[in-house]
Model the fold of this input.
Amino acid sequence: MMLKIESFTLGPLQTNAYLLRGEDEGRAVIIDPGMKPGPLLRKIEGLDIEAILLTHAHFDHIGGVDEIRKAKNCPVYVHPLESDWLTTPKLNGSLMWPEVGPPIATDPAEYDLAEGQKLRLIGHEFTVYHTPGHSPGSVSFLCGDDLFSGDVLFRLGVGRTDLAGGREADLYNSIRGKLYRLKDEVKVYPGHGPRTTIGFERANNPYVS
Done:
């Protein structure tokens, strides 16, 4: 069964939100509903949303959580190291850039994520990789040959490590020790910018070889 992936570039920081569907196209999963999620909300009007999966809890990735959760009555998953970030604007960074938007706070997540966890959603299995460095609770989701890397690995780039809880050594360990061990053909869907592949990044990324 192929995973159908649609991307939406949302909010002032151009965050990638992903809408995933399996064989039953009436059911879907959302990864990182970014700020100003109007286009995504319109797209999911007739869909059942099984889950909102968060790669991490920075404000530009969680801005649409409450609107979608209330509209679709769906659970939210986040790594426990960032569970407090959903409810606390100071932690999720939304107080740092008032020109971007108002403080963001949501209700707590319903479920925690953990390294190696297997989630069975929309007829597919998602494996959770804890990939800290950009933030302490950053995770990546692997479904078949599709990897959703959040702000850990980008096309020819990596996530910044100068925000709260970021650590450069952790980021490089996450990429080299976990993501670069995946197959070359694994497609990478990042939190910002265009998609890439593990093989291309392993060969060409100027930050992590």
Remarks:
- The two ends are 33 Å apart (CA to CA).
- The chain has one domain: 4-204.
